[in-house]
């Protein structure tokens, strides 16, 4: 459900997510991001406090403030880490099976007791915080790019019309699952995953995602 240090805005330091740390720096980052993810899942974006994150992670407040600067900076780094840690795409040689694997992964993630509330919190925050929105967009760009080759290869095999926009097909798999998460209390189960993948495949074969001039 994605390193590096950054100070406050305008201090010339690297933005979170642009420098990959190692050793103790990596351990500090991992502890801080885990604490931040826990707090997001428990309390939402507006309950996220850098001092409390530092306490939970057993890290000095100065380190957290110097490195991430703001709550938005911390969330941006968390999303970067989540994108990098997400499972790689499946490659079964079948469009239906590849997209079903994607749907199952999305459903499993959003159903997770920690990851589901975390995503809800970040999505809610992105509606009112520009930096969080930018980080969320980058997260999904990474994930869509990971799975787009499934669709591109299907086009090459002749399973889909030429000119099919691969990224749109991948988004079409996830869209009904996120809508279900955010607007209902219905389970994100195997049936939901199969419907989402099947609908995306059917629409793609019908040419719904072919690029137009």
Automatic annotation (TrEMBL):
PROSITE patterns: HTH_TETR_2 (PS50977)
Bias (Gly residues) ranges: 1-11
The keyword Aminoacyl-tRNA synthetase is annotated on this UniProt entry: no
Protein name: TetR family transcriptional regulator
Entries under Gene3D superfamilies matching the protein: Homeodomain-like, Tetracycline Repressor, domain 2
A Pfam short name: TetR_N
Keywords: DNA-binding, Transcription, Transcription regulation
InterPro entries found in the cross-reference section: Homeodomain-like_sf (IPR009057), HTH-type_TetR-like_transc_reg (IPR050109), HTH_TetR (IPR001647), Tet_transcr_reg_TetR-rel_C_sf (IPR036271), TetR_C (IPR011075)
Source taxonomy: Bacteria, Bacillati, Actinomycetota, Actinomycetes, Kitasatosporales
Claim: Transcription regulation is one of the keywords in the record: yes
Regions recorded as binding DNA: 49-68
Residues annotated as domain HTH tetR-type: 26-86
GO MF assignments: DNA-binding transcription factor activity; transcription cis-regulatory region binding
Residue numbers spanned by region Disordered: 1-23
Highest taxon, organism lineage: Bacteria
Organism: Streptomyces katrae
Transmembrane segments: none
């Amino acid at each position: 459900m994605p390193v590096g240090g950054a100070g406050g805005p305008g201090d010339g330091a690297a933005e979170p997510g642009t420098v990959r740390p190692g050793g103790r720096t990596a351990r500090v980052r991992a502890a801080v991001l885990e604490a931040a993810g826990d707090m997001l899942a428990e309390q939402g974006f507006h309950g996220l406090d850098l001092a409390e994150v530092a306490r939970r992670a057993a890290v000095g407040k100065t380190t957290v403030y110097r490195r991430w600067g703001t709550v938005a900076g911390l969330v941006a780094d968390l999303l970067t880490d989540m994108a990098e840690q997400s499972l790689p795409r499946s490659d079964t040689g079948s469009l239906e099976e590849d997209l079903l694997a994607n749907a199952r992964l999305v459903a499993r993630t959003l159903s997770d007791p920690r990851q589901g509330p975390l995503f809800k919190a970040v999505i809610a925050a992105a509606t009112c915080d520009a930096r969080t929105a930018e980080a969320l967009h980058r997260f999904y760009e990474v994930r869509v790019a990971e799975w787009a080759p499934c669709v591109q290869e299907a086009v090459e095999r002749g399973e889909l019309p030429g000119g099919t926009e691969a990224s749109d097909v991948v988004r079409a798999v996830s869209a009904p699952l996120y809508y279900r998460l955010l607007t209902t209390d219905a389970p994100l189960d195997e049936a939901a995953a199969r419907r989402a993948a099947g609908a995306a495949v059917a629409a793609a074969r019908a040419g719904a995602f072919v690029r137009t001039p």
